[in-house]
DNA sequence: TATGAATGAGAGTTCATTCAT
DNA sequence: AATGAATGAACTCTCATTCAT
């Protein structure tokens, strides 16, 4: 049983690690950086996390946990609304999450990449072997599909309650909507370091709203 | 004046580098890997490219060059069609390009990140300093905005010839369309290592076509 | 605050570095050599000194410190004697120092060279840039002129108390005397590896004494 | 038999090598530097000199040759003067030579060091083994003692003709005088990069003259 | 628990030297 | 004779990891 103190320390390390990993990437991050960030010694970090990869996976795991907590809360808060509203809110939440947790998007994508590589027994990535060996890697498996499932079930609900008139396969709708959010996040993040509110002279806020308007329209399938 | 032989060798190296960088990333790639891939010694690679960062930027430069060659060709081949068709074809070309040149997408995005970091004098990325110092980095500056300009001019043409009824700012339309393509590429690539033709039980070909259908619809702005 | 243990280790490394640098020169010395000399690993040396140049400058700094400590002690011990005696003793001390600290002379001269190159913004010496960037390089600046100042003030004292009848400019006397000591050290060191007590069939001890006799005579200026 | 053309090329290389070796030292000099300096390729240099060490020794050899040519000329031109004058002129020539051939002094000293190391079978200097293996190294042996012998014979002549009243062992006188010249050269060279005409506010020309005045006085032995 | 030290396996880069043309 | 290429050993420096205290 982990003590309160231990959990607190672990979270402190995870915070720092998340910050730095997402800023400069896994390989560019030194354990020393993480330790210094919280006034700790390198050795101590190893007391809590057995390896760099393990720490990285722990960060990813925590991020998944939090994301899913949010998905569930979001889903719960819209259970009285129609399916379409629920879906849009879920993506809105997702986008907010990425915006507020810099680099979270990268963690998620990287995990997906690793998971895929495992299924395919792709031995290309020697480095990531250690990641897949991490206990956290396996713990994430129990979570990773939840966001998908939650969104898809809301899509189905929407198709049933008539708010989503688009009758394409729910997975296709999910992918289309997610691609839009992912693309927005990716392009936005490429120019994110500063907090500039415009990209190419377009107000980010406007672009963002338009993204959701398009998503909404897709679900409406007005054109079909 | 570079000899034919030299250019051929450089391209051979660039090919190998592109392959490996895109497979396992910049940091994970060893110069030795690249050299061995083409049966060369480490030292020889340095005869052609002064540093790892320089080589990386050279790869990026070549990718930009090729991309733009394609954009121009694509644009030329649709000059008799209406603007909307031209725009869709450009994105279709872009997506094909990313699909066929594994990792190209990452190169492009990474460059944008570096360029942005430079404008903001963001010293976070110590590693990338050497990249920005590369002569290729500066050569790319003359190219990087061409794709944007080409697409935007076609959008404008489409708005003028009536094929693009959506009267939003061309930049906003560009971003929306590009986000869709970028998102598709990103998600697709996360599960690309093998040549599986389905993601989440959805046929990739179908998803792909649907992406263009949605893009087309956005330009039509049927719902507006 | 540096621990006792740390300081001891640093000095152990400095000892080894001084030994090897002076034996085979800066460029010929490998960090590995220094580490092995004291049964340490390469990496550990880097724990204490951030670079080879930094280590070299640290060695130089320590040498300066010790030299000056000696100058001061020597000067203090002759404060009741006349100026000429004080001057001769200072040079005698200097020569002893060079004799006992093999290669010290080279360190001192190299530093002077670097310092000069800096003032002249001479970019010839690419290698030494890192040396000038060392924190130790700047620390030495506060010390480097002390020997000169001490000797010159004793020369002035000697001219005032009548023991140094030579009325030439104190700096000229300093240079003339120092040249003699420097020349002796240089020639002697060229054939120093062994402890042979003769050079060209001349007893080194005799030559040495004669050097001081000549110096003494210059200060007396008997011939003027 | 070496062709004219070959000898010319060799000398061109030797010129460049002498310049660069003396500026930045043996280890810091790259064969490429030397080749580029005269618009030649690295490979070509190897056609004329089998190794870097061999080239270095060739430079040294040529320097010795020239020095000795000068010694002989100088000696011949003073054969009608008394011994003391001849000695002073020889040292004056030596000093001029060092002043005009930057780095020559280092070459000479380095050779002495190598020669000494050989006699003592000192295996410290692994690098220099190749130098001692050079054919030029052995050729120098036939020359190296000539300057000493010439000076010493003039000293003896001076002692006999009464111009050198100092009756100390000629070798001791030689060492004392040479030390003075060597010290002057060393200190002067430390601050030589620019052509400043003062050191420590002392006019170099004045210091130089004073050096010879002192030397002259030593030979006179006025004080004895 | 925590930390300062120590380690050692690389990784990027340099450069003397060789070789094919 | 000359050169552009190619090589590989050597070297500096990094950093994840371990360990003694």
What is the helical fraction of chain A, as a range of percent? over 70%
Low-confidence stretches of chain A: none
Number of β-strand runs of chain A: 2
Q: Can you tell me the CATH topology of the largest domain in chain A?
A: Tetracycline Repressor, domain 2
| Assembly type | homotetramer
Fold and architecture overview:
Four copies of one chain form a homotetramer. Chain A is an all-alpha fold. Chain A has two domains: 1-49, Arc Repressor Mutant, subunit A (Orthogonal Bundle), CATH 1.10.10; 52-220, Tetracycline Repressor, domain 2 (Orthogonal Bundle), CATH 1.10.357. Helix content of chain A is 75%, strand content 2%. Chain A contains eleven helices and two strands. A two-stranded antiparallel sheet of chain A has the order 1-2. In chain A, strand 1 (198-199) and strand 2 form a beta hairpin. In chain A, helix 4 (52-77) packs antiparallel against helix 5, helix 4 (52-77) runs parallel beside helix 9 and helix 9 (146-161) packs across helix 10 (170-190). The radius of gyration of chain A is 19 Å and the shape is globular. Chains A and B meet through helix 6, helix 10 and helix 11 of A and helix 6, helix 10 and helix 11 of B. Chain B binds a DNA duplex (21 and 21 nucleotides) through residues 3, 5-6, 9, 30-32, 40-44, 46-48, 50-52.
